[in-house]
């Protein structure tokens, strides 16, 4: 009996008395698109002890964005894998000596602060019990939208404007960097792009932008009749997936 009791106590010590390596895989996937990996700069992942706030692990997702056909064109059944060994991920090996409740967050795409979105979840980590395979997948909604024309705080002469108009031009991509084209996997025809316009702080209406025939590029024309300080906020809205994105800038007409 004593021998059995000693063996039982040793098992308890082995299980809970010493830190055990616990593998955790975290991925960030753009909504309606692919995984966020090396090609777009990655997602920055933080694994934090929920009670104490201690950071247990942190780092970038690295790897490819994944297989387009597999993720977006192939029917899936329960337990089907959407990733492989090359698909972007952050991997941590934590030393845990007790079950630990954690918050896992991802900010992506980390190299695009103006467009970056933070997503998070919480779960229990059990010592020695890996969270691997697909791992934890955090969805990152939105678009990356950049205003290309006019330039930030550009000063333009009213008399020099051709046809009294300014071109509005943007570059729009998915959060994983995937291209938007007419009739493509990410179809420009289902995305509404418009500019909200203000002059001297007063709303002056909206201007539509249309796909320009080049990957990711949308253009429109803004009529200008008066001098002043202008602000444009250009948004993209996918009518099917409900993804959104926005960029803003100011320019001067003198």
UniProtKB/TrEMBL annotation:
<keyword id="KW-0732">Signal</keyword>
<protein>
    <recommendedName>
        <fullName>DUF4198 domain-containing protein</fullName>
    </recommendedName>
</protein>
<feature type="signal peptide">
    <location>
        <begin position="1"/>
        <end position="19"/>
    </location>
</feature>
């Amino acid at each position: 009996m004593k021998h059995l009791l000693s063996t039982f106590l040793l098992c308890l010590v082995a299980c809970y008395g010493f830190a055990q390596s616990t593998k955790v895989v975290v991925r960030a996937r753009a909504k309606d698109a692919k995984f966020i990996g090396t090609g777009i700069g990655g997602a920055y992942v933080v694994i934090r002890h929920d009670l104490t706030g201690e950071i247990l692990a942190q780092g970038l997702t690295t790897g490819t964005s994944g297989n387009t056909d597999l993720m977006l064109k192939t029917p899936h059944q329960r337990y089907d894998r959407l990733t492989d060994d090359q698909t972007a991920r952050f991997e941590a090996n934590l030393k845990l000596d007790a079950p630990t409740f954690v918050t896992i967050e991802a900010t992506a795409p980390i190299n695009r602060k103006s467009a970056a979105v933070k997503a998070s979840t919480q779960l229990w980590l059990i010592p020695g019990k890996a969270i691997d395979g697909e791992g934890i997948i955090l969805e990152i909604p939105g678009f990356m939208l950049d205003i290309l024309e006019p330039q930030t705080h550009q000063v333009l002469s009213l008399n020099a404007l051709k046809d009294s108009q300014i071109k509005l031009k943007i570059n729009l991509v998915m959060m994983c960097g995937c291209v938007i084209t007419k009739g493509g996997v990410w179809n420009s025809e289902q995305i509404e792009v418009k500019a909200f316009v203000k002059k001297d702080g007063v709303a002056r209406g909206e201007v539509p932008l249309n796909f320009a025939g080049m990957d990711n590029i949308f253009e429109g024309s803004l009529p200008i009749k008066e001098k002043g300080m202008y602000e444009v906020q250009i948004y993209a809205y996918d009518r099917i997936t409900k993804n959104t994105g926005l960029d803003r800038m100011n320019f001067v007409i003198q």
